[in-house]
C-alpha cells in the first residue's frame, strides 16, 4: 500500500499529460477538413510515434476518432455523429410539440415540461412557464430521478419486471419527507399508474411542488417522451390536477400525432 501511495502523484501527472496529448490530437483531427495521418500529427506536435499511436488507439476505442483504411487518415468518430443526432432529435421533438405545449401552458396556467427517458433518470428538454409567472426552477437538461418525479414514475411503469426490480432494489434517495422510498409502496403506485395511464407527485422531489405526467407513446406502444404539468402545492392541488388531467390528455394525444405524422427529420 505504501508503494502505491508514493507512486500516485507521479502516475497522476503522467495520466494528466497523456490525456492532454490525446485531447490535443483529437482537436487537431476535428479541425481538419479531410483528416490527418499519423505523420501529419507527428509533424504538427513533435510527439514521438509511439506516444501518438497509443493516444490514437485510446481515442479510437472510444469511437472518438476513426481511421480510413484506404486513405490512412484519421477523422472524428461515430460518437460525435451520434451525439449530434441525439441533439437533432431533441430539437425535432421540440419543433413538433412547442406550439402545443405553449397552448397547454396558456390553457391550464401552469408550467409544462417535455422529458425523455434515460437509463435510470429522465431529462427535461423543454419547459414552458406562464408569462405572468417566474420560473423558480430551471429543469432544462437536468436529469431527474425516477422514483420521486411524475415523469420518472411513468418511465418505471413501462419497464420490464427485471429492470424495474433492479431499480427498486437499489438505493432510493429521499429528497423530501414525502419521497416514497419503500419498494412495496412504489410497486403499488406503479400498478395504479399502469391502470390509470398517468402519474402524480406531491412534494416528493421539491417539497412545495406537485406534478402530473402522461406518457407519449409511438404506434407500438413504446414510450417516446413524457408530458408533465407542475405547479406550487398551494395552487396545483390534487383537485386542480384532476381538472387539468383531461386537458393534458388532449394535448398529449395531439403531441403524439404531431411527432408521429411522418418519420422524416425536418
TrEMBL record:
Q: Which PROSITE patterns match?
A: HTH_ICLR (PS51077), ICLR_ED (PS51078)
Q: Which GO terms describe its biological process?
A: negative regulation of DNA-templated transcription
Q: Which Pfam families match?
A: HTH_IclR, IclR_C
Keyword annotations of the record: DNA-binding, Transcription, Transcription regulation
Q: Which InterPro entries match?
A: GAF-like_dom_sf, HTH_MetabolicPath_Reg, Tscrpt_reg_IclR_C, Tscrpt_reg_IclR_N, WH-like_DNA-bd_sf, WH_DNA-bd_sf
Domain HTH iclR-type stretches: 16-78
For the IclR-ED domain, which residue ranges apply? 79-261
Gene Ontology terms, MF aspect: DNA binding; DNA-binding transcription factor activity
- Signal sequence coordinates: none
Protein name as it appears in the record: IclR family transcriptional regulator
Which species expresses this protein natively?
Answer: Listeria booriae
Amino acid at each position: 500500500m505504501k508503494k502505491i501511495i508514493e507512486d500516485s502523484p507521479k502516475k497522476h501527472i503522467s495520466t494528466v499529460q497523456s490525456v492532454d496529448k490525446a485531447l490535443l490530437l483529437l482537436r487537431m483531427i476535428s479541425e481538419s477538413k479531410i483528416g490527418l495521418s499519423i505523420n501529419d500529427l507527428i509533424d504538427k506536435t513533435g510527439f514521438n510515434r509511439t506516444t501518438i499511436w497509443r493516444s490514437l488507439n485510446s481515442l479510437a476505442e472510444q469511437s472518438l476518432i476513426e481511421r480510413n483504411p484506404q486513405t490512412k487518415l484519421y477523422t472524428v468518430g461515430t460518437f460525435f455523429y451520434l451525439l449530434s443526432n441525439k441533439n437533432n432529435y431533441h430539437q425535432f421533438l421540440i419543433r413538433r410539440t412547442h406550439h402545443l405545449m405553449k397552448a397547454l401552458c396558456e390553457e391550464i396556467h401552469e408550467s409544462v415540461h417535455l422529458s425523455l427517458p434515460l437509463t435510470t433518470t429522465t431529462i427535461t428538454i423543454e419547459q414552458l412557464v406562464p408569462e405572468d409567472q417566474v420560473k423558480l426552477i430551471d429543469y432544462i437538461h437536468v436529469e431527474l430521478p425516477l422514483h420521486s418525479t411524475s415523469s420518472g414514475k411513468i418511465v418505471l411503469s413501462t419497464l420490464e419486471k427485471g429492470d424495474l426490480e433492479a431499480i427498486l432494489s437499489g438505493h432510493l434517495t429521499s429528497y423530501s419527507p414525502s419521497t416514497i422510498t419503500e419498494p412495496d409502496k412504489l410497486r403499488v403506485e406503479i400498478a395504479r399508474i399502469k391502470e390509470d395511464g398517468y402519474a402524480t407527485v406531491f412534494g416528493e422531489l421539491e417539497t412545495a411542488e406537485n406534478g402530473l405526467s402522461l406518457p407519449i407513446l409511438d404506434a407500438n406502444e413504446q414510450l417516446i417522451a413524457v408530458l408533465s404539468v407542475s405547479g406550487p402545492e398551494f395552487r396545483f392541488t390534487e383537485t386542480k390536477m384532476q381538472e387539468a388531467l383531461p386537458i393534458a390528455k388532449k394535448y398529449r394525444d395531439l403531441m403524439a400525432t404531431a411527432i408521429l405524422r411522418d418519420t422524416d427529420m425536418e
